Structures are given as C-alpha cells and as structure tokens.
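REQUEST FORM: STRUCTURE PREDICTION
Request ID: SP-0412
Submitted by: Lab K.M.
Chain count: 1
Length (residues): 336
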Amino acid sequence: MPPKILLLAHDNKIGDSIILTGLLSAICKVWPKAEIGILCGGDNLALYKNHPDVKWLHISHSRSILIRAYASLMARSKKYDYLVYFGLDVNKSSFKKICGLVNVKQRILFANPIKKNNSDLVLEGPWSNCHISNRHFTFLRWIGSKLKNYHYDIRLDPNIEKLIHNKFNKSKSIKKIIINGKGSSKDKCLSNDWINRLIINLRMFYPKHQFLILSTSKKDEINLLKELPKLDNNLKIIPYHDAIDSNLTVIKYVDAVITADTYVVHAACAWNVPVLALYSIHAIRDNHHIIFGPNSKRYAQIIPSKKGIEAISIKETLNAFQHLMKHKKIQYCKYL
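STATUS: Completed
RESULT:
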C-alpha cells in the first residue's frame, strides 16, 4: 500500500506554506505512489490547489473550532499513515484537537509534546537557530531522500499567470520593482509617507523603472490610490484580491522586491528575485531573520536598533538596495 501523508498547514500562514511546497515533489521522488493530503486554511490554499502532487485538500476556512473539526474529520476519513507538522507549538490546543480528530498511525514532529503518543517520532535539532527549511530537509532525509538543495515549488493558477505574464510582456523592456510596506503587525508596517520618501529617492537612481505597490486589503488599496499615484507617473498600485495567486504571480515577473512582510520574501526567493527584507527590532529577539529569513542567492536584510520598522532610514534602505542590485549573488544581514 502507498503511504498516505498528511501535512499540517492549518495555521494559514502564507510564508510557511511557500516553504512547505518544496516537500511535495521531493516526497514523491522517494515514494512515487505516496498519497499526500494537506490540511490548510483559505489563504494558503492557493499554494497547494494547483500542485499535481497533492491528492487531497482539507480546508478550514476559519479558525472556528467547528470548522477545523470538520476539516479534521474529512482528513480522518482518508486513514493517513503519517501526520507531519513542522511547527514547534505542539502543545497548542488547536494542534492537539486536530491530531485527536485526524487519528493517524504516526505523528512526525519537531518538538516534544507534553503528552507524547507511543508512536510519535520527534526529529530533534537546533530549530530555533536555523532556517525553518532545515526541518523540511531533515524530514526528507528521514524518508530516504538524497536531495541536495531544498527549493520552494510554487505552482500558480495557469489562467492568472497567463493573464499577468501577457500584461507584463507588453512592457517587458521596463524593469519593475515591487514595494510592500505592510507587515504582520503595526510595528512591522511602513507608512505611506515613508514609502513616498523612498520612491522619491529611488527614482533618482532608477529613473526608468516601474514601481509596483502591493495592496494588502481593499481599504489599503483605496488609501494607496489616493496618496501615491500622484507622486510618480510610472507607479502602479496592484489591486487587492482575496486569493493570493495574483500577488504571487506579480512577484514572479518583477526584477526586484523591497518588503516588510516575510511571505513576500519567501515568494521572491522561490524565483530567486533579488529581495531586500526590512524587519523590526523584534527580529533579533525572536531570531526571526534567521528562522524565517530569505533562502536564496540574492537577498539583503536590515534590522533597526530601535522599536518600529521606520527606525530604518531611507538612506540605509537605498544603500542596501543599490548594493543588492549590483551583485548577482549576495546574502547579507545588516544590524543598524
């Protein structure tokens, strides 16, 4: 019987889900007949729905206990052999409830739960001091994979990709830079005024480039349209879409990225698009820049010495970005 593997992505995090995509084809190379299922949310569903190596999707469209319970019971009906979870929060109630309902033969974990099942396998390592993809790589080695390099494997919606690719082809001679100022919390977000000043300074060095601003909500899109296009004739606001497919496709076809959000960092790394990641000071405390930082050949990171991401000056950002663009291979992190 082919092994049935359930991968948990129930926390709905897009960045973590981008990293998880690197597992799918790699598992099938070791176990060609493996049947892979994923328990995911509505946001990160886009990362899996077009992947040919995913057989089942169990979707929890909200964090509601009942909705998650239903998705877990649907997964239970497939009678999985393995449940694999790469998070370290294995004592969280949501994780324990999902595990109880799915009821697999064996759990593959990366942290020790307080209540451990006899069949549990915990793959231990220095996970708080290395990139999260090392956990995925360790799992692949455990199943016998001889993979040498771990690559993300985003499969986009073919219709959306064709639409955006054709649109970009009309202006393919114009280089494009994405600017994404919205992070996961207030202290990780850049104000429109800060972005305004960045654009003014960038324009002096990149006079013919087109700047693309990602919208993170409909309200954000409206505010951006009110404030930014007047500033620059060659600037475009990317419309907000509920599904992340559109933004991912746009990221694939640009020449560089400046972002305060790690999901955009990981998306850029999937296609080795040069990316400048701006973090808050908490990145050092949480080792965030190491665990969830870029994982490609072309990236730079800046971490400020004060609270709030805008403690990173426009000058420091511009210098780091110019440095990034001058090198075909560059990997560095700067603490201010």
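NOTES: The chain has two domains: 4-142, 159-335.
Reviewed by: T.R.
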